[in-house]
């Protein structure tokens, strides 16, 4: 198999539920020999090759340990909105990356506690209880009282938090400013802005007590291209993500004398449950958003793509701060600019 084709198939066949439901095509100049553990390949010389991807059990070789795994070893990571999408993928990416060193603790929060418990079971089953410990916590970040008591509610050995991933967020509707429902405004502000701020306030005291340099820890805020490039029909959501950007920038400057890193990651179009929530549970409308682009040759990012960036930022040497990252899929140039093949 040509190296370029091998890389393409390897990327397309990673174990993601989104990819497991699709077939992909790659062009190769000669037949591809079957035998990939996660692909069934049918090929003809100089023809387009259809690659069908399916989920297969992962196996891990922990005989080698990277510097990245060592940096994550023994840390406690909190991920909000961890029941699906980017948050769920962050949980798996942190666990898998740190597994060779072991000792990682993951605190996964969301409203859907049963889903979190299933994720915890899946992680321990895949990696082993000696490699990762997972604590599912039911938490709605828009509940101020619950957030303020969050750290104290944890078992004592879980309170020494090292990394906070402020991922929980949502968008409701596509109405323009005069017609936006008041309850939609309230829930977006309470989740995307005040929820993120309150989670940060809840965890910061732990960070500030650590080390001899005034504090240490990572605050990773998931923003959006919408905070940089507002668009019609998204005024409140765009405003909330602009607030995340301003808060992150201000906080970074406030903490400049410490070892606390403030990191913002701004995804472009990512295929998650995001659009299902936006359309009030109408999955057909949500699917149509991504299908229209995919049919035109634009493949949105996956949650795994963003999770890799999150873990990369969290696993840099302590003097390295990936302050801001804007992540686009190929063919996206702005919030509303996606090149579509004719």
TrEMBL record:
The keyword Oxidoreductase applies. InterPro entries: KR_dom (IPR057326), NAD(P)-bd_dom_sf (IPR036291), Sc_DH/Rdtase_CS (IPR020904), SDR_fam (IPR002347). This is Ketoreductase domain-containing protein. One of its GO terms (molecular function) is oxidoreductase activity, acting on the CH-OH group of donors, NAD or NADP as acceptor. CDD domains: SDR_c5. The lineage of its organism: Eukaryota, Fungi, Dikarya, Ascomycota, Pezizomycotina. It comes from the Eukaryota. Keywords: NADP, Oxidoreductase. Pfam families: adh_short. Residues 75-273 form the Ketoreductase domain.
